[in-house]
Design a protein that fits this description.
The chain is mainly α and 96 residues long. The chain has helices at residues 3-28, 33-63, 80-94. Helix 1 runs antiparallel to helix 2 and helix 2 (33-63) runs antiparallel to helix 3.
Length: 96
């Protein structure tokens, strides 16, 4: 993963953490339930977008880039088929 991609993902994670903290404040302030549910929906969407970005990066760098030294150290000893099987498992968990 490139430094720019890491930075972009870190920014997203910080934004999501801020949204979650906002939900906590909303609960403490006894805000209207529908407003809180809307914020929860926004967090879910943000997490989904982050997951898609991370999955795309993993596919590009670790699965398709296997053997080109772009993959994570954990992916290096694995075969492309092992990596694909791992992606299938991760994707089925992600989509639940």
């Amino acid at each position: 993963m490139t430094a720019a991609a890491k930075s972009k993902m870190a920014t997203r994670v910080k934004r999501i953490a801020g949204q979650v903290a906002g939900i906590e404040r909303m609960l403490e302030e006894k805000r209207y339930c529908v407003d809180i549910l809307n914020q929860i929906s926004a967090v879910r969407s943000a997490l989904d977008a982050l997951g898609v970005e991370l999955l795309t990066s993993h596919l590009e760098n670790c699965v398709l880039g296997h053997g080109t030294d772009t993959e994570h150290d954990s992916a290096k000893p694995m075969s492309q088929q092992d990596l694909l099987d791992e992606v299938k498992t991760a994707l089925s968990r992600f989509l639940k």
